[in-house]
Amino acid sequence: MSVFHDRHLELEKYEFMMGVARGRLAVTMDVLTDAMALVGQHGVYCTSARDPKLPAFDLRAVLNDLDGAKALVSSVMEELRMGKEAAE
Is the pTM value of this prediction over 0.90? Predict the structure, then answer.
């Protein structure tokens, strides 16, 4: 299944509220947040051998990359918002 089919209700809602580009980016943020939550839950069971209080190194790397992706998407959303405000 495609994300457009799986998340069509969310896409429709956010695209209506924010426009197509920002709406899709908002849904992307939700997808990334969901992925971070799943990886975080997995980290509870898959801990580091060196420090059992921390998730395994590969999970920390994935979480770091997901966090970076969210920051990039957020910055694009802000740029789009500022561009729209400047045009008005």
Answer: no
- Helix (H/G/I), strand (E/B), else coil: 46: coil
Note whether 26 and 19 are within 8 A (CB).
no
Q: Output the six-digit token pair for 85.
A: 């405000």
| Amino acid code (one letter) for 66 | L
Phi, psi torsion values for 7, nearest 5 degrees: -120, 30
Per-residue confidence of the chain (88 residues) as pLDDT tens digits?
798 999 999 999 999 999 999 999 999 999 999 999 999 898 888 888 888 888 888 898 999 999 999 999 999 999 998 988 888 8
Q: Which helix (H) or strand (E) holds 47?
A: none
Distance CA(31)–CA(14), nearest Å, equals: 13
End-to-end CA distance of the chain: 38
